[in-house]
């Protein structure tokens, strides 16, 4: 609009010159107007009023969004715990052409040393200036990362929650219902780090049934004495995390629900207001089948959990 009005003014000036009988000779030194086309605000008329705090138009410093400049972007973070399916879940999200989830960016201690360090990192991610393998050539509709609860979340929850509210960040909580399965996965992964049965290489995730079968051969022995206390600790940690962020826009997703019912992925896409896509992952589950086949001391574990609030973990099963 600014450009059009200035062009009209210039045209009117030329008409006035002709009207007064002035002439421009070939030798006239012309002085051109320095016309600047100002950034026009993006049209958000099709976005509902309640959504507007959660819709963003980032202006990255490392590249130009060009034709994507007016494509709205939602910010998100996946809160989870190690060995809860977050890696698999993130690959599903990243299979969406308009989503970039950048992995565990707070694995490095210096990035989570203080609220200030955390917010500086978040600013880079949400401004699309965090370059990773998840970066997309297509227009982003959602950008985020996964954040383990033991990576500064619990210690700095007040500052993080405030940042989320001020900047319209969506929180996705991903936990396991069966915490016993998680313990088995944690112990098996710890063994793999030390012993590296796959040709001397540690792999937290695999992409073939052959690799999965190799890793699944190891059966950990669970400490039955501390099992109940450990289950309570993990359960309480998840509950507290959700409570810390109850004033933010959030959703709670359970790994088993995603495995058993892929419509849960549609709910997540709806939560982020994404155009619906079928999401896929190349990851292959390592520990499948009944739990009795995955631990050394199954009989002991059964005795400890029977009659407790965690007895259902002995029977709660699923397939992937």
TrEMBL record:
Signal peptide: none annotated. PANTHER family: PROTEIN, PUTATIVE, EXPRESSED-RELATED, SULFOTRANSFERASE. InterPro entries: Nod_factor_sulfotransferase (IPR052796), P-loop_NTPase (IPR027417). This is Sulfotransferase. It comes from the Eukaryota.
